[in-house]
Design goal:
Blueprint: H1 3-43, H2 47-60, H3 67-82, H4 85-103, H5 110-126, H6 130-141, H7 148-175, H8 185-205, H9 210-225, H10 230-260, H11 262-265
Amino acid sequence: MNVKQQVAVGGLVLLLVVGLSGCRFLNKVKAKDRLNTAAVEYKHGNYERAQELLEEALALDPTLPQLKPYYGATLYARFNLTGDEKFARKALEVYEQVYEEQMQKDNPDTETLNNTLAYIAAIYGNLGDTEKKHEWMKKRLELPGMTPESKAEIYYSLATDYWNDAFQITQQYVMNKQEVPDEEIPKVRELANKGLEYVEQALALRPEYADALTYKNLLLRELAKVEKDPKVKEQLIKQADEIRQRAMELMKRKREEEQMSPSGSS
């Protein structure tokens, strides 16, 4: 190959490289435009149109930051609006992909990870898979930079789920003025005690967490419902009453502080 041929080939390669770079740049611009337009549609509740725009953006440039999380949020919004489980399943697929991509990075974005895990847990909860919901909630506890307040809220949320499961068992009998059957008692105790474990972890991080105290009171009452020993039952109810009173005092104090603050008095 002579010098002229080499120059010609080199120029062709350069044109191809520049052309491809220009094409990628143009796709990125188009993808950003669709993402911005989708954000407006999402804000106005036009989730179907937002989904279409985001899918176009993904086809143009799937590496665009926040594109996949926004797509997952849009799919989840469509699930909440329609109740169609296919949107929830697709949203899970998208968010789990975001999670895996972040975990492969040397310095993953903690905020993106936190939001992603919260969405995944919420979606599993709405699909009725409590075990999976709790699995993904606990992953949030392991994230770097989580504040004690944020961790306390996660432990509190776990506790409320266990209370709800215990309550669903006992309430049907209480409403009919019946004793909880013996075969149900071990399950109720297991759920209530597990809830108490988590609520204690929340209170260890936030001792004056009124909502957590409220659920500690409720969990103790679930134990009282299935307690056979009258003295132990009485002690559980007394303890629950004291904790409820403490929670009410904290709530009252918080309201008073808010009313006294400049923003509360305006």
